[in-house]
């Protein structure tokens, strides 16, 4: 993540400022960070997941959102752009500019954000009471790390690699890894 000219803003100032920007920015505790461009594999995997989730959730109160929808994590004073997220919360269905109650968040790793997606961003995401699963997708290694919230509010890692199916218990969905990585050239 790159800081955008070391701008320090309140959350309200950030939302107003970002509406005037050509590029997307994330916001954490007063700091603004410019988003980097995604490579083709990143976009394909994000689309594969979003398509499968949308298809599975058709006819339910849940909706699938892609990278252009902001997520507010109020407890972290932050706004992010997850690659994919699902919300079933009625307030989010009425939201115009950002969601606040996702059930599932997916981040597809890139070289520049991998450490942050696993570290600081996940720390912020864990503050969302609604969040039940967090997927980190490693395209290069054909791996999906699914962090699932337990009844004791701990986070349990389910590591999917190879030909196994990825289980998303929060949505009662099993996704074949081949579907997640469809159209990605073999390494």
UniProtKB/TrEMBL annotation:
SUPFAM superfamilies: Restriction endonuclease-like (SSF52980). Residues 12-175 form the Putative restriction endonuclease domain. InterPro entries: Nuclease_put_TT1808 (IPR012296), Restrct_endonuc-II-like (IPR011335), Uma2 (IPR008538). PANTHER family: GLR1098 PROTEIN, RESTRICTION ENDONUCLEASE DOMAIN-CONTAINING PROTEIN-RELATED. This is Putative restriction endonuclease domain-containing protein. It comes from Methylomonas methanica (strain DSM 25384 / MC09). The lineage of its organism: Bacteria, Pseudomonadati, Pseudomonadota, Gammaproteobacteria, Methylococcales.
């Amino acid at each position: 993540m790159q800081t955008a000219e070391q701008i320090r803003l309140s959350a309200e100032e950030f939302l107003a400022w970002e509406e005037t920007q050509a590029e997307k920015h994330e916001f954490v505790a007063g700091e603004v960070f410019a988003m980097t461009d995604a490579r083709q594999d990143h976009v394909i995997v994000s689309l594969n997941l979003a398509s499968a989730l949308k298809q599975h959730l058709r006819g339910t109160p849940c909706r699938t959102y892609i990278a252009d929808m902001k997520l507010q994590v109020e407890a972290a004073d932050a706004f992010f752009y997850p690659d994919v997220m699902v919300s079933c919360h009625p307030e989010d269905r009425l939201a115009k500019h950002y969601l606040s109650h996702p059930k599932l968040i997916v981040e597809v790793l890139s070289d520049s954000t991998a450490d942050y997606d696993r570290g600081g961003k996940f720390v912020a995401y864990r503050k969302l009471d609604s969040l039940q699963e967090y997927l980190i997708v490693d395209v290069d290694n054909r791996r999906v790390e699914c962090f699932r919230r337990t009844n004791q509010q701990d986070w349990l890692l389910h590591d999917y690699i190879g030909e196994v199916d990825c289980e998303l218990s929060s949505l009662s969905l099993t996704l074949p890894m081949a579907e997640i990585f469809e159209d990605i050239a073999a390494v």
